[in-house]
Amino acid sequence: xxxxxxxxxGNCYKVRLLLAQLGREVERRELSVVDRSDRMVLGRLNxxxxxxxxxxxxxxPLAESNAIxxxxxxxxEYVPQDPYERAKVLQWMxxxxxxxxxxxxAVRFWVAFAATPPPxxxxxxxxxxxxxxxxxxxxxxGRSPFLVAGRYTIADxxxxxxxxxxxxxxxxxxxxxxxxEWLARVxxxxxxxxxxx
Amino acid sequence: xxxxxxxxxGNCYKVRLLLAQLGREVERRELSVVDRSDRMVLGRLNxxxxxxxxxxxxxxPLAESNAIxxxxxxxxEYVPQDPYERAKVLQWMxxxxxxxxxxxxAVRFWVAFAATPPPxxxxxxxxxxxxxxxxxxxxxxGRSPFLVAGRYTIADxxxxxxxxxxxxxxxxxxxxxxxxEWLARVxxxxxxxxxxx
Lengths: 197, 197
Hints:
globular; homodimer; four-stranded mixed sheet
């Protein structure tokens, strides 16, 4: 397995975390998330020219972090068998890409990594949208220990990736008790690795 | 089946199109995409308060258009059996929610429906990002008749929904021959319905 990767990308971290928990080895090839001039190496592998992009053992490419999670986790303990629970896992992963990653990850990128961030009012508007995504996550967790079926799934991996580093974008999680307890539960899972590992 | 719906939302149209092709009846309950004050009716059904939100026959809720597509299509001709092809379907659907819908659907909404659209330079910047998403779609289609496995799947439904109305947001598809031929192939599928049906 070959992963076109960035050590700071939450989307790439999702894939590394799942593979660690599945006990799968992966070779990492780093691309920058700031200087995107090297992205054409992905040309024939991923039409969106984004990372993570995975190359399977047989040479076939696969892209989009949450699609990669599904490919490797389906059939394992990290994806439920029940059709409704499977769809709920996907519901949370699509919410992540639609509402959560474009706000929380974007603000973190602008604040912590971007060479030329947008004006402060653009960042603040996006941060407000990020808080709305955190409100949704808090409501969705409710009193459940995990997002779907009461147990740890790739939905938790997908949402954990950028939530646990939201502070780097200036988000405060103090008003989100359910999120705080859930983050600790995710870290306590067997074979957990950190984004910096 | 009960669908919280909007007749102009491409995300809702995806669900109606698939259900029509599967021969499933659905009751539609319309919510506005402009005045969002009625969204709290979704409170216990969808923590993101978005449409489409589906209520299954047993009362259980399901949200996120592409998760709903997966739930109803898995096991039918519209989702492949092969694990790699299944992941490629998800790859395209996550691309749709990550890069395509936030640009092409957002610009269409601002131009055609919004009461208070953002400044023209914001719309133009987003339109440029939308053209990058169309570039990706054109590259991804290449010489294939459909996005995955050479046949019509829910990946095509997911990408068709906002691509075919991109003109309402001021996008020109003239420079995208592969997209143009693919749109015609999607319309030619059995039991196709229009967004206005």
